[in-house]
Amino acid sequence: MELRIRENMDRTVRLLVKTTGFLIITVLGGIFFMLLWNTVAFFLQIKPLDFITGTQWNPSGDPAAYGILSLLASTCLVTLGAMVIAIPLGIGTAAFLSEYADKRLKSILKPAIEMMAAVPSVAIGFLGIVIVGPGIAGLTGQSNGLNALNGAILLAVMALPTIITVTEDALQGIPNTYREASYGVGASKWQTLIRVTIPAAAPGILAAVMLGVGRAIGETMTVLMATGNASAFPKGFFDSVRTITATIAIEMGEVPYQTTHYYSLFAIAAVLFLFTLAVNMLGEFFVNKYKKYHAP
Amino acid sequence: MKRLTPVIEWGTLLLTTGTVCFFLVVILWDLAIKGAPALSWTFVTALPSEGMTQGGIFPAIMGTILLTLITTIVAVPFGISCAIYLDEYATDSWVTRLIRASIRNLSGVPSIIYGLFGLALFVQALHMGTSLLSAGLTLGLLSLPYVISTTEEALRRIPASTREAALAIGSTQFESIRDLVLPSALPGIMTGIILSLSRAAGETAPILFTGVAFYINNPTGFLNQEFMALPYHLYMLSTQHHAIEQVRPLAYGTALVLLIVVFLLNLTVFYIRHKHSNHA
């Protein structure tokens, strides 16, 4: 083929792939614009202060109430519970994999954890109904065990693979000289892990936790199926709760197009979006900090 | 006391790891044991009947396959193309940094927000209605950031010398990518794509308002029709059905089929990785 044609082809392809790069910016921009547009439409009808400080979410009531606080509290409660369970388990497992397990054990455990990450959220939610729910009901005497604790346990299961994988990477990234220096002054393996390796990997571990939090906050199906979805303000882990994601999933299918109720669901989605954005940026901040410390 | 400390220390780590493994075993064991009795040839090939209490889940399996197919058609070409731009052509400019930041943020956006975006854009603004096409496009957008980042990672593993060798004998950059870089990166790209698709196949939230339905009697359906899907079917059978206890075995069966679909995709990934690592 003539050189000119080949060069033209190269230029065309360059332009084409560049266009798809811009497509990505457009998608994020589109999501941002959609949330903003509908949230503004919502705030033209409902005072922002009522939205932010209201504890009642009752869009079909008379008068309708659009307070996000109970939904936000539910989301935070379930996420907090999930992290209380997942962080110690995740760090412990990652430490075991990175510092103690031999190669053969690792080659079994790592794919197993990848497998856990692959289980669809709806299947986890289903197990919340058929296993965790009856379990909690049996222990507490509640009728079905669909409450914040159930959601927290399931979200912990969903966040664990992320936390374990990223934490293990962070621990592996610590140079062996750190450990050897610690052994050299007489520390045991455990003391080295607790006082040297984990603190040195702290930014990476924080990034892992942030990724786990991001996953838990945004998860829809498991909480929708397992937390009971009562829209009252939650008082504790044994209360039925209704998160932001579950509220969108329940109500969006039924609202008429372009009503206040319709806009309100975009407004709570915007709040959710901002939260996940903040959590992810925080995670990224820790990752960068980690990279700076351990640049080769 | 001193002799006990190492035992406690060891025990802590073993206990955490054991608990995590216990979770996984419970998930797999429960679904396998209680799902297996429901599986049969009729279960995967028959239509639901008697108000979902009898029959099979063929339309849901078909719907999930078609949906994943559309997701592939949307996410794979655009994803690979964008990854090629970022890894092969792009210079470090503010545009490139903006694209990378967008990809990172998009992969953190909750799936239900993709569902809202699909509803606002495809279903309403572009008048596609609640349909297989709307849902497939929505899932395509959701998979895009994963496809891009895994493809880029695969491309980055190809040494610069490969490209330089091609350029040195007079090929254009496009020719070096088409004939050398992409073929060598193919196993890595494939595994990334399959993993992204296995995620998409199990997603429920993004298709809730964009086209999934509880019952469609025409199993093949078409692009402009609503459809059934395995994850949504499981959700409806386990929470919304009028005779929940009666359909529990069917729900277990659906869950097991969904899990098998997802794990088969993941096994393919393990196979490709294993085969490739032997050659390297």
The SS-based structural class of chain B is mainly alpha
How big a fraction of the residues of chain A is strand?
under 5%
**How far do the termini of chain B sit from each other?**
51 Å
Order of neighbouring strands in the sheet with most strands of chain A:
1-2
Oligomer: heterodimer
Q: Largest interface, per-chain counts?
A: A-B, 81 and 83 residues
- Rg from Cα of chain A: 24 Å
Poorly predicted residue ranges of chain A: none
Helix content of chain B: over 70%
The CATH superfamily of chain B is MetI-like
Number of helices of chain B: 10
- Overall spatial form of chain A: globular
> What is the architecture of chain B at the second tier of CATH?
Orthogonal Bundle
The total count of strands of chain A amounts to 2
Structural description of this entry:
The complex is a heterodimer of chains A (296) and B (280). Helix content of chain A is 76%, strand content 1%. Chain A is built from twelve helices and two strands. Chain A has a two-stranded antiparallel sheet with strand order 1-2. In chain A, α1 (3-43) crosses α12. The longest helix of chain A is centred in the N-terminal third of the chain and has 41 residues, at 3-43. Chain B is mostly helical. Chain B has one domain (59-279): MetI-like fold (Orthogonal Bundle). Chain B contains ten helices and two strands; from the N terminus they run ααββαααααααα. A two-stranded antiparallel sheet of chain B has the order 1-2. The N and C termini of chain B lie far apart (51 Å).
Key terms for this structure?
heterodimer; A: 296 residues; mainly alpha; two-stranded antiparallel sheet; 12 helices; 2 strands; globular; B: 280 residues; MetI-like fold; 10 helices; 75% helix
